[in-house]
């Protein structure tokens, strides 16, 4: 087995490592179908061999050609390291700088089999979110990082380490770009070809920027989304007894099961890949697993155990008109009186009375049921379309709507290459067909999307609420011809809102977003210290006085951070995430840096965030879908953020094409900032984190968002160096109408 020292010694060439091929028993990426010509295949092979000296090319060429033929890409399986891939304590890396060691820690975490979706294909999450394009790039990057000084910067071109370049100690140590393809050529078809050639890469968001922290990140985002969805759609704070149905238990979507338990609802999550489902069950994130739709429905119906079944014709009702009995009982369950000729359905809506003489059943919640707090995360091994259609069947045959909230977290940004599996095929049948006949597979996917939307539309006629989770589900459904149109809406709006438009958009506009950190010591005690520091910072901010809307977000995050250890959220590196605004992020960073300085925390801490944030991403169907001034399709914010973070002290920065909603649909960026306890680190954190939030709030303010306007004005009052152009509102819309009549 290799050591870290060997891992940092460059490509192993003499002798070459044994070619062990694909490892059995671990998940592997779907076969890609780039449709290369013979000349393009030769180019792909030539591009791969340029990492190796001439004396080994004759040996490597046939096996690389076989990989290209069998899998549609050259991963260089021979060079997959024979080492336990995980985030080692930072002091164990043979480096000249703390920053380089911290970056190595983050890279190896992204490739940890407990974290990565397809570790041998260097995919962290999302089905195709690459850390590198091949294993030669991994070895070279680790070598360069081990040699890097404080006056060098490592430059990464879509997974390829271009080299170490002279810079200054104030410059970033690492600059990453992923997928920066000329816009007119940034199509899916072109991507498959360019990736097969080894010249570009889809880094998702935090895969290719080395900042993924396992599914904990999306757990927190899902917790906040479901909590705020309940507030908006159901008008409640307590989700006990409410049912949330969704799909996906992979690298990101696997968080949904844990989030359901944390918010206290019943989560039913469909997943076609048995390995992914079993992984979440073994982690304890899924409480139950079944491959039976009957069992799913049975478990949902068991939630009615505490309900009192009252037959209207029971003794004591004799002589009382049926309509009056219904009115009395509907009053008892706090429902509006029902009209004559209607009965109460279990869904809470009135329905026509059955044929004369048929028994009428009323389901009335008892006190026992109201007091009982049922929490469940149920994994259904099967296709989510079948689950949605079964829920429609139950509604149509019994009158019961067994679901309150719904969404989807399939990797629909990549629907035709393993991101979405059609209901007509089994998992293995689908994998085979997508490789052997992509056109037929695409047709089945689009038919499946239409069926899924049809079922959701039927349920939405009841008191059920659905939202798009930013995975391009509604966008791909629209392209498939599904009924998702919203009449009179703009290009970024559909029949159902994205979670940014209705649920998280105002949170972003106030500067709140997914702030995170990693304790590079690998010591859980260091993480516990940071948890306490973060909670105390937010509590002190509340005590000092904040707006009610800000206080609500702080309270949600204090609850999260206080309960984080109990929920066993760490997978891989010792990391934590919470949503915070600019003031909170800076204060937490300063507190952590001071704790490192006085040795309460034993090693440097890496600050980062999801690219899915206030300023990090321009994505018209997700992060910027609530931008209505026409600039939702412009990417100035994300690019400026990347440049601005680099100028203000980030240890590394990344800029990506693609992420979340797919290739060519989004530009996004992120950063890593190493806190080492020095005054310089504190200064960098203050400057960079302030910019990293204010950039996005200012842009949202200029687009006309009132909450962002208020926040940026407050921030300018607190910092006289910040001067932002503020918009003037058109007070009289008739001015526009009259002007356009010319």
Q: Which SSEs are present, and which pair or pack?
A:
Layout: H1 4-7, H2 38-49, H3 54-71, H4 98-110, E1 123-125, E2 129-130, H5 135-147, E3 152-157, E4 160-166, E5 174-178, H6 188-197, H7 216-234, E6 243-247, H8 255-263, E7 266-271, H9 274-283, E8 288-290, H10 293-301, E9 307-311, H11 322-332, E10 342-344, E11 350-352, E12 361-365, H12 367-371, E13 376-381, H13 384-398, E14 405-406, H14 415-419, H15 427-436, H16 438-460, E15 465-466, H17 473-479, H18 499-509, E16 513-519, H19 524-544, H20 548-563, E17 574-580, H21 582-597, E18 605-609, E19 617-618, H22 636-647, E20 652-657, E21 667-675, H23 679-702, H24 706-718, H25 734-739
């Amino acid at each position: 087995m290799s050591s870290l020292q060997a891992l940092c010694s460059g490509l192993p060439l003499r002798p070459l490592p044994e070619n062990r091929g694909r490892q059995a028993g671990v998940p592997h990426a779907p076969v890609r179908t780039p449709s290369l010509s013979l000349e393009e295949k030769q180019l792909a092979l030539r591009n791969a061999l340029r990492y190796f000296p001439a004396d080994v090319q004759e040996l490597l060429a046939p096996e690389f050609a076989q990989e290209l033929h069998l899998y549609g890409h050259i991963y260089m399986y021979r060079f997959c390291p024979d080492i336990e891939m995980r985030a080692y304590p930072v002091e164990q890396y043979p480096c000249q700088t703390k920053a380089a060691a911290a970056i190595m820690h983050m890279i190896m975490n992204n490739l940890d089999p407990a974290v990565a979706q397809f570790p041998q294909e260097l995919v962290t999450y999302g089905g195709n979110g690459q850390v590198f394009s091949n294993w030669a790039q991994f070895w070279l990057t680790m070598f360069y990082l081990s040699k890097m000084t404080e006056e060098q910067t490592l430059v990464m071109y879509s997974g390829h380490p271009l080299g170490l370049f002279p810079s200054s100690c104030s410059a970033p140590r690492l600059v990453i770009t992923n997928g920066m393809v000329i816009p007119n050529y940034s199509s899916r078809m072109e991507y498959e070809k360019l990736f097969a050639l080894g010249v570009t890469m889809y880094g998702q968001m935090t895969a290719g920027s080395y900042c993924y922290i396992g599914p904990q990140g999306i757990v927190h985002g899902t917790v906040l989304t479901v909590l705020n969805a309940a507030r908006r759609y159901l008008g409640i704070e307590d989700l006990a007894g409410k049912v949330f149905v969704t799909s996906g238990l992979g690298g990101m979507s696997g968080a949904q099961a844990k989030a359901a338990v944390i918010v206290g609802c019943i989560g039913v999550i469909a997943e076609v890949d048995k390995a992914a489902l079993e992984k979440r069950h073994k982690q304890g994130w899924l409480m139950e697993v079944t491959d039976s739709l009957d069992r799913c429905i049975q478990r949902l119906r068991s939630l009615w155990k505490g309900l009192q079944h009252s037959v209207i014709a029971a003794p004591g009702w004799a002589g009382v008109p049926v309509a009056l009995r219904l009115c009395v009982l509907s009053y008892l369950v706090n429902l509006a009186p029902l009209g004559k000729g209607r009965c109460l359905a279990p869904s809470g809506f009135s329905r026509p009375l059955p044929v004369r003489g048929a028994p009428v059943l009323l389901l009335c919640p008892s006190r026992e049921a109201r007091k009982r707090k049922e929490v469940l995360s149920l994994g259904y091994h099967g296709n989510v379309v079948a689950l949605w259609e079964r829920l429609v069947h139950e509604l149509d045959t019994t009158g019961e709507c067994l679901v309150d909230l719904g969404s989807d977290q399939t990797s629909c940004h990549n629907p035709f290459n393993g991101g979405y599996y059609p209901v007509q095929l089994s998992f293995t049948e689908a994998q085979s067909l997508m490789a052997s006949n992509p056109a037929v597979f695409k047709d089945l996917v689009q038919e499946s999307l239409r069926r899924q939307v049809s079922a959701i539309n039927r349920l939405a006629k009841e008191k059920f609420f659905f939202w798009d989770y930013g995975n391009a589900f509604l966008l791909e459904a629209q392209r498939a011809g599904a009924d998702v149109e919203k009449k009179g809406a703009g290009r970024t709006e559909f029949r159902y809102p994205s979670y940014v438009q209705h649920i998280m958009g105002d949170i972003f506009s106030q500067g709140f977003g997914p702030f995170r950190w990693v304790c590079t010591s690998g010591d859980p005690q260091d993480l516990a210290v940071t948890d306490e520091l973060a909670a105390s910072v937010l509590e002190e901010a509340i005590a000092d006085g904040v707006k009610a809307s800000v206080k609500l977000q702080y309270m949600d995050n204090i609850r999260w951070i206080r309960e984080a250890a109990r929920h066993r959220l760490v997978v891989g590196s010792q990391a934590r995430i919470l949503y915070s605004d600019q003031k909170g992020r800076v204060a937490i960073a300063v507190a952590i840096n001071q704790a490192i300085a006085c040795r309460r925390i034993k090693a440097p801490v890496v600050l980062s965030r999801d690219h899915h944030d206030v300023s990090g991403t321009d994505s018209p169907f997700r992060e910027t879908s609530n931008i209505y001034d026409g600039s939702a399709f412009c990417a100035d914010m994300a690019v400026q953020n990347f440049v601005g973070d680099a100028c203000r002290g980030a240890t590394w920065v990344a800029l990506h094409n693609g992420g979340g909603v797919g290739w060519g649909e989004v530009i996004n960026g992120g950063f890593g900032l190493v806190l080492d306890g020095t005054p310089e680190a504190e200064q960098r954190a203050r400057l960079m984190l302030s910019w990293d939030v204010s950039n996005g709030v200012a842009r949202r303010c200029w687009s006309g968002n009132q909450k962002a306007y208020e926040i940026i004005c407050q921030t300018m009052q607190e910092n006289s160096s910040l001067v932002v152009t503020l918009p003037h509102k058109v007070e009289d819309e008739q001015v526009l109408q009259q002007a356009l009549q010319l």
